């Protein structure tokens, strides 16, 4: 077998739609825990506390709100299924095509909120899938 | 109708009851056959041009049994089908596909290891991926995910919580862990004494 042409000499050339790493939009996250509960790998850690927001109108009621203390994804366990992104009702997570974050130790693959927020700078491109059209199911061979 | 589907239909011309279903979804055709006709169907597909064996695997349909599927294609990928059959849950067994596609041996080995399905005629169903001495069939849905008892479930917390819940309210049970396995309910059989902090 010959090697296909176009094998890149340096880094791989990937589609901008590639699912490389997960970015966090902190201000959208309500600490609702849905992503942490749906993650099949149990590799998404969230800690938060409750704060009281005083009423803004006379006679109004105080509100309580959840404040994020920790948001971390352990990419040594993550299988990039994207379930956390799909399940988030607040669009607080999205893909970035970046993949250049290898580490010498598995422990360093846990990205805390600051690092996850950093991936926001490179959102993955949206758009139609580049999967080829399936063959026409009714035509002959 | 594709040549592959036509070829399978021809095999079943006299016993239509064994050809359980032919369905096309998203451009992929699935042919569901009686498990006794597995080899016949594979032979017909190979003869009709599907000489490329892509993969064979299974999935757990709970009380209905186990589905075994094989994906077969023409070498130029112009036509492809999923061949599927259903096996009974107790003693699931089926004829090996290796008599038609030798490359199926490795896939049957893995499917045997993960689901406990027997492939009659494949004499080399030794463990492939699991650690030495592992017992159990981990891709069956009734397999207890013991590691989920050992590790704290990150989803057990409620919004606004930082620590494990301190109140006595019922905790959320993680998927894959049956009732009675979480350590505050009872001591799990395999968690040892490292978890007496509860
Ligand atoms: S991509 Fe999947 S495995 Fe990774 S953190 Fe999200 S839900 Fe978990
Ligand atoms: S699902 Fe979205 S909003 Fe809820 S905790 Fe996860 S990231 Fe935050």
From TrEMBL, chain A:
GO cellular component: a single term: membrane
InterPro entries per record: 4Fe4S_Fe-S-bd, 4Fe4S_Fe_S_CS, NADH_quinone_OxRdtase_chainI
Keywords: 4Fe-4S, Cell membrane, Iron, Iron-sulfur, Membrane, Metal-binding, NAD, Quinone, Repeat, Translocase, Ubiquinone
PROSITE patterns noted in UniProt: 4FE4S_FER_1, 4FE4S_FER_2
Keyword rRNA processing: no
Domain 4Fe-4S ferredoxin-type: 20-49, 69-98
Protein's UniProt keywords contain Translocase: yes
Region of interest called Disordered, as start-end residue ranges on this chain: 118-141
One example GO MF annotation: quinone binding
Pfam families xref list: Fer4, Fer4_4
PANTHER family: NADH DEHYDROGENASE UBIQUINONE IRON-SULFUR PROTEIN 8, MITOCHONDRIAL, NADH-QUINONE OXIDOREDUCTASE SUBUNIT I 2
Name used for this protein in its record: Unannotated protein
From TrEMBL, chain B:
Pfam families: Complex1_30kDa
Stretches assigned to the NADH:ubiquinone oxidoreductase 30kDa subunit domain: 31-148
InterPro entries the record matches: NADH_quin_OxRdtase_su_C/D-like, NADH_UbQ_OxRdtase_30kDa_su
Stretches the record annotates as Disordered: 154-198
Family: Belongs to the complex I 30 kDa subunit family.
GO molecular function, one term: NADH dehydrogenase (ubiquinone) activity
Protein name: Unannotated protein
PANTHER family per the UniProt record, alphabetical: NADH DEHYDROGENASE [UBIQUINONE] IRON-SULFUR PROTEIN 3, MITOCHONDRIAL, NADH DEHYDROGENASE UBIQUINONE IRON-SULFUR PROTEIN 3
């Amino acid at each position: 077998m010959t090697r296909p042409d176009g094998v890149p000499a340096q880094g791989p050339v990937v589609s901008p739609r590639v699912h490389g790493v997960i970015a966090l939009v902190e201000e959208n996250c309500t600490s609702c825990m849905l992503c942490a509960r749906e993650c099949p790998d149990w590799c998404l850690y969230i800690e938060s506390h409750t704060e009281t927001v005083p009423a803004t109108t006379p006679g109004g009621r105080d509100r309580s709100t959840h404040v994020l203390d920790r948001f971390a994804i352990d990419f040594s366990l993550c299988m990039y299924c994207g379930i956390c992104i799909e399940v988030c009702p607040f669009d607080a997570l999205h893909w970035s095509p970046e993949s250049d974050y290898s580490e010498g130790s598995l422990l360093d693959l846990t990205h805390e909120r600051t690092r996850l927020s950093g991936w926001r700078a490179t959102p993955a491109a949206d758009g139609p899938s580049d999967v080829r059209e399936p063959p026409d199911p009714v035509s002959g061979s | 109708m594709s040549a592959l589907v036509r070829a399978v239909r021809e095999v079943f011309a006299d016993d239509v009851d064994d050809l359980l279903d032919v369905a096309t979804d998203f451009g992929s055709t699935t042919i569901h056959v009686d498990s006794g006709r597995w080899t016949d169907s594979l032979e017909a597909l190979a003869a009709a041009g599907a000489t490329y064996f892509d993969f064979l695997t299974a999935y757990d349909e709970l009380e209905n049994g186990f589905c075994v599927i094989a994906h077969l294609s023409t070498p130029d990928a112009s036509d492809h089908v999923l061949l599927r059959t259903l096996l009974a849950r107790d003693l699931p067994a089926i004829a090996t596909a290796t008599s038609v596609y030798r490359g199926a041996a490795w896939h049957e080995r893995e499917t045997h290891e993960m689901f406990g399905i027997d492939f009659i005629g494949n004499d080399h169903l030794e463990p492939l991926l699991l650690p030495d001495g592992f017992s159990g069939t981990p891709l069956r849905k009734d397999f207890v995910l013991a590691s989920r008892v050992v590790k704290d479930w990150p989803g057990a917390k409620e919004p606004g919580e930082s620590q494990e819940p301190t109140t006595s309210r019922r905790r959320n049970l993680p998927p894959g862990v049956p009732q009675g396995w979480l350590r505050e309910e009872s001591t799990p059989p395999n968690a040892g004494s490292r978890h007496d902090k509860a």
